[in-house]
Specification:
The protein is mainly alpha-helical. Helix content is 42%, strand content 8%. It has a 3-stranded antiparallel sheet, with no helix packed on it. A hairpin with a 5-residue loop joins strand 1 and strand 2. The longest helix is centred in the middle third of the chain and has 20 residues. The radius of gyration is 30 Å and the shape is globular.
Length: 409
């Protein structure tokens, strides 16, 4: 499918919709046999089924054929079954297996065939945050170029992309933001090339802003600041116990915001006798992170007070409501961020750009400073590329190691 025909309705499928995947032809409906007999070629070279009327010939099951008619099998299994075109000519129609039901209606089946390739590309992105960001990036490019129909995507050249990059730079966007936007557009055109909808990727060869040095911009807390933050939730209330457990889970395991928010009670499992967190990471990749003793104690105290330890499929960290701290649904990432800001203020941790990702950066930096192997840290963080992990390696930029403090007069 080209996916770029101008008559297609771009609103046919929203970006988050499920697009049925092909089965490669391995799950075809089973054929129904109408008579005993096996496939034979007559004098005219036409394939027919022995013992069945010629106008109702249907494909037999090979195993059943070999069992019932060994002599006929010797003559028939050597030859290929009728081709799809031959079945069409003879009126052969594969029927569904008895008891099976068609999931897609005929109208829905044909409607999905007309979904624009751009929408299929978006729907195929698993991570909702990436899908949302890429949707915005694509809308930005389409608005810049004034593209109104899918067919106009064929007319985009490298010059258009370079002009867009210049516009983004004029807006003084961060280099990482511009790189992401160009990556989003390149991903789309890569998909369209695979679909034979366009001849080439116009983003290929367009220079992207260089990475910002060897160190990430996300702030990392000092060891003293991290200790104060861990101790900020005080008291014996359920809310305080939950918040201590959340902060410990962040600062000892370097999880992403979504990874922590989607943890379930059953995410804590033993592997080789050691409790692990089963983490659903980016790109639908699962990793197993050993649980730190301090975090495990905080989680255990919280679950004991909350009383949902046996709800293995339920959310691990849940919202509380009212003075009685009644548990509700899963604690969202936004709720956890507000909690962090509140406790940072209480603990006197004042850091520009403090966010939940800063806790991930803090844990990664701390592990590297205490001689953790960077390859293990890469796996621990769930990074696909070790160059991303190196952004957290700040051992050469520790203030206390600066030559400034070695100067003596």
């Amino acid at each position: 499918m080209s996916g770029l025909d101008d008559h297609q309705d771009p609103n046919h499928l929203d970006a988050g919709a499920e697009v049925p995947q092909g089965d490669g032809g391995h799950n075809k409906p089973a054929a129904t046999r109408t008579g005993p007999g096996s496939w034979r070629r007559d004098t005219s070279g036409r394939w027919t089924a022995q013992g069945a009327p010629e106008d109702s010939v249907e494909e037999p099951d090979d195993a059943e054929q070999l069992e019932d008619e060994p002599e006929a099998a010797a003559n028939s299994v050597q030859a290929p079954p009728p081709s799809r075109s031959r079945r069409a000519q003879t009126g052969l129609v594969a029927q569904s297996r008895p008891g099976s039901a068609r999931v897609l209606s005929q109208a829905h089946f044909h409607a999905l065939s007309d979904v624009p390739a751009v929408m299929v590309w978006l729907a195929n992105i698993d991570n909702p945050n990436t899908r949302r960001a890429y949707t915005g990036d694509l809308e930005d490019f389409l608005g810049f170029c004034g593209i109104e129909t899918p067919g106009e995507l064929r007319d985009v050249t490298r010059a258009h992309v370079i002009a867009w990059r210049g516009n983004l730079e004029a807006q003084q966007l961060a280099g990482s933001t511009i790189r992401r936007k160009l990556s989003a557009l390149s991903s789309l055109y890569g998909f369209l090339c695979n679909e034979n909808a366009v001849e080439e990727n116009p983003v290929a060869g367009v220079k992207r802003p260089p990475a910002d040095g060897n160190e990430g911009k996300t702030p990392a807390l000092s060891d003293e600041q991290a200790r104060r933050l861990l101790q900020a939730p005080t008291g014996k209330s359920l809310k305080a116990k939950r918040d201590r457990a959340i902060l410990a889970t962040y600062l000892f395991h370097a999880l992403r915001r979504t990874e922590l928010a989607t943890l379930t009670v059953g995410s804590i499992q033993e592997r080789r006798g050691v409790p692990h967190l089963t983490v659903a990471g980016k790109g639908s990749k699962t990793r197993y992170v050993p649980v730190h003793a301090a975090a495990l104690a905080a989680i255990d105290e919280y679950l004991e007070a909350a009383g949902h330890r046996e709800d293995r499929k339920g959310a691990l960290f849940r919202r509380t409501k009212g003075p009685q701290n009644t548990l509700e649904g899963a604690f969202t990432g936004d709720g956890i961020y507000k909690m962090l800001k509140r406790y940072a203020s209480v603990a006197g941790v004042h850091v520009d750009g403090l966010c939940l990702h800063a806790l991930r950066a803090t844990a990664a930096t701390n592990a590297l400073e205490h001689s953790a192997d960077i390859a293990f840290v890469q796996s621990w963080l769930g990074h696909a590329n070790i160059s991303t992990t190196r952004l957290y390696d700040r051992r050469r930029s520790r203030p206390e190691d600066s030559p400034t403090f070695r100067v003596r007069y």
